[in-house]
Amino acid sequence: YNKTDNRKELNSMNIKKKFEGERGTVFTMVYPIIYIVLGVMLVAFKDMKPEVFAYLIGASAIIVGISAIANFFVRELYYDFHNYSFSIGILMMALGVCIMIKANDLSGVLMDIIKVCVLLTAVIKIQQAIQLVCLKNVMWIPVLSISVLVSGFVIFLFINSSMPREATYITLIVDGALSLLINLFVFPPRFK
C-alpha cells in the first residue's frame, strides 16, 4: 500500500469527475462564431476599407468581452478565485473601444491582431489537448494535430508577409470552425 499512489489515483478520479461534469458555455461558442463570421465577411468583401475592418474587429472584441462577463456571472465563477473571465471581459471591451476610436491609426496592424488572436486560440487548444491526454480521452489526437498545424501556419504567415491577406482570413475561418467543432463535440455547451 502506497499513500502517494493512492492520493494520485484519488486526485485523478476527482479531476475526471470534474471534467465529466464540466461543459462549455455559451461563451465558448461566441468567439468561434465571431471568427467564422468575420472571416467570411473579410473574404467576401476584399475591398473593404481598413477603417471599416477596424470597426468590425472592435465590435467583435466588445461582443467577446460582454460574453465573458456574462459567463462570469451566469456560471457563478466569482466563487473561483482562479478564474479571470470578468477581467478578460473588461479588457476585451476596453480593447474593442480603443480599436474603434483609433480605427484610422490601427488599419496597418489589424492583420497582425487577427494573427495573434488565432495563434492564441490555437495555443489554448494545444493546452486542451494536453488536458485530454491527462484524462485519457482519445480526442486529444485530432485536437493536438489540428492545433499544431494552425499554430504553425499562423507563425508562417507572420514570417512570410508576402502571403495574400486572404490566407489570414481563411485561417481565421478554419480556426473558428475547429474551435466550434471542439466545443460542440469534446466540450458540449451547457446552457444555464
Compact description:
The protein is mostly helical and 192 residues long. The chain contains 8 helices and no strands.
3D structure, described in words:
The protein has 192 residues and is an all-alpha fold. It is 78% helix and 0% strand. Helix 2 packs antiparallel against helix 8, helix 3 packs antiparallel against helix 4 and helix 7 packs antiparallel against helix 8. The protein is globular and about 45 Å long.
Give a quick account of the main beta sheet: strands, pairing sense, barrel closure. Answer: none
Report the β-strand fraction as a percent range: under 5%
Number of helices: 8
Computed CA radius of gyration, to the nearest angstrom: 19 Å
Low-confidence stretches: 15-23
Gap from first CA to last CA: 43 Å
Strands, total number: 0
Structural class: mainly alpha
Estimate percent helicity. Answer: over 70%
Oligomer, anyone?
A: single chain
Which geometry do the CA atoms define?
globular
Order of helices and strands: HHHHHHHH
**Nearest-integer average pLDDT:** 82
What are the main properties of this structure?
single chain, 78% helix, 192 residues, mainly alpha, 8 helices
Task: Give the topology, please.
Blueprint: H1 3-21, H2 26-44, H3 50-74, H4 85-101, H5 103-106, H6 110-134, H7 140-159, H8 165-185
Helix pairs in contact: 2-3, 2-8, 3-4, 6-7, 6-8, 7-8
